[in-house]
Amino acid sequence: MQLVAIVTHILRLPQRYTALLLSLLALLASCTESTTSHQAGTLPDSVTGIVQKGNTFTLTHQGQPYFIRGVCGQSRLARLHECGGNSIRIWDDSDADFILDQAQQNQLTVFLGLWIEREADGFDYYDEAKITRQFERIRKAVLKYRSHPALLMWCVGNEWTLDATNIRVFDEVNRIAAMIHELDPNHPVTTAVMQTTARPIWLIRDRCPAIDVLSLNVYAALHETGQLLQEGGWTKPYIISEYGPKGHWESDLTPWRTSIEPTSQEKYRFVRQNYEAYIASPPPNCLGAYLFLWGNKEEGTHTWYGCFDEQGHETPLVGLLQELWTKQLPVNKAPTIDGLLVDGRKTTGVSFPGTNSIHQARILVHDVDGDSLTYAWDIRTDLSNVYDLDKRSPPIRISGLIVGEHSADIRFTVPRRAGNYRLFANVYDTHNHVGTANLSFRVPGREVP
Predict the structure, then answer these.
(1) Mind listing the pLDDT tens digit for each residue in 339-364?
(2) How many angstroms from the chain centroid is the CA of residue 95?
(3) Which of 11, 160, 168, 402 is least enclosed, having the fewest CB within 10 Å?
(4) With 0-12 CB in 10 A as exposed, 13-18 as middle and 19+ as buried, what is 158?
(5) Using CA atoms, how far apart are residues 258 and 399, in angstroms rounded to an integer?
(6) DSSP-derived secondary structure for 170-181
(7) Which residues pair with 216 in a beta bridge?
(8) Residue 264, CA distances (Å) to 99, 276, 283, 420, 426 in order
(9) 411 class by beta-carbon count within 10 Å (0-12 exposed, 13-18 middle, 19+ buried)
(10) pLDDT tens profile 150-170
(11) What are the residues whose beta carbons fall under 8 Å from the beta carbon of 121, sequence distance 6 or more?
């Protein structure tokens, strides 16, 4: 009523004053609205906040506490929602329009990556022209997506501290984060780094004050996260931006230095133990975590990280996430792999003495639901060693070497060409589940024509 009286009074003034006073009144009203819209309980639906109480931090979204039950990936989002997931992580904005819309339709949020170039890939942080182009690209992305209701937070870069020697990259990350805060005060800004030593943590702490949350990609060393954060002096909240089975670079090695991949059941046990110990009953400044990978990818091998195989069958990790997030057991579980025998013994790697030799293999498996099981085996080329991951050619599947490839027991012939190979075994039930195991083997000597 007071506002109506003021407007009425202004309209009675001489015309030369009316326009100016109405403009000032509109400005005052907008300022009042902006202030109240950021008070507790009146935030826009898409706003994400961080609340600190003592030494404890809580992430909020749409005004409610929001612990991240997330995965890395962008497919099968309806299935993720069914399992109790609430968020996905993507590393860049190349298809963000579609992904954000799909996430919104499935009641999920998006941890949206803004890719920054890495020194490890040859980017020069003394090149002002390149830095400016990168900054402007990110600025445009923030302007484009800042109002999307599925947006949870921004993530500046991924693992950019690896092999970084130019301290200016830290300053540039902070400059980008500060710019994001200016354009979008409604969503926190994080950056994702590989958990290695305390050094990148304290450099981010000292040189990147605009970063609200630290995100860590960590696999086998999740038990060391708390100590490393303490050594780095990090007192703000953090997110586990990638976790999962033990990484292929962290696993045990064969004598010829290829990675020994855990079976799907071993991955299940490892992820469960880590999640329950270091994420589920969260440390006071942990805001949640993203499992890598909700999908399928050739990294280490084509079966190492994915929650699904190449045909979309679910590995035991899918049912595990449902159990961890909802506290409800899946109606049906994936086959349980108990081991892989080669020539009658359990082994994780074999160097066969010669080419064209014939050997036997058996997959040991049981199904707790009593489902009938089917099998698929294949042999593929492998890395020369674990350190050649970035140099490798796509693995080649070699046909004609396996007899009985749809049985639990097979015979296989060693390839004629010298090199490193893997024998893969997949076991399927009747409910779209798969269990996996593989054997790394070597054929020594020179190439056989």
Answers:
(1) 999 999 999 899 998 778 899 999 99
(2) 16
(3) 11
(4) buried
(5) 22
(6) HHHHHHHHHHHH
(7) 193, 240
(8) 29, 18, 28, 22, 10
(9) middle
(10) 999 999 999 999 999 999 999
(11) none
**CA dist list (Å): 431 to 68, 327, 376, 395, 403:** 28, 21, 16, 29, 26
Token digits of residue 359: 């050997």
Six-digit token string for 355:
């080419």
Residue 385 tokens read as: 């060693």
Q: Are strands 349-351 and 409-413 parallel, antiparallel or unpaired?
A: unpaired
Q: Is 187 helix (H, G, I), strand (E, B) or coil?
A: coil
Q: Find residue 50's DSSP bridge partners.
A: 59
Q: Which residues contact 227 (CB under 8 A, 6 or more apart)?
A: none
| Tens of pLDDT, residues 55-81 | 899 999 999 999 999 999 999 999 999
Q: What is the pLDDT of residue 415?
A: 93
Report in angstroms the alpha-carbon separations of 242 from 47, 85, 123, 285: 24, 15, 24, 17
H or E element that contains 202:
helix 199-207
What is the pairing mode between strands 349-351 and 434-443? parallel
Residue 242 CB partners (closer than 8 Å, separation 6+): 72, 89, 192, 216, 217, 218, 219, 290, 291, 292
CB-based contacts of 136: which residues, under 8 Å, 6+ apart? none
| Residues contacting residue 195 through CB under 8 Å, at least 6 positions apart | 216, 217, 218, 221, 224, 225, 228
Query: Scanning the structure block, which residue is given the tokens 């703000």?
Result: 236
Cβ atoms of 117 and 140 within 8 Å: the answer is: no
Query: pTM, whole model, 2 decimals?
Result: 0.89
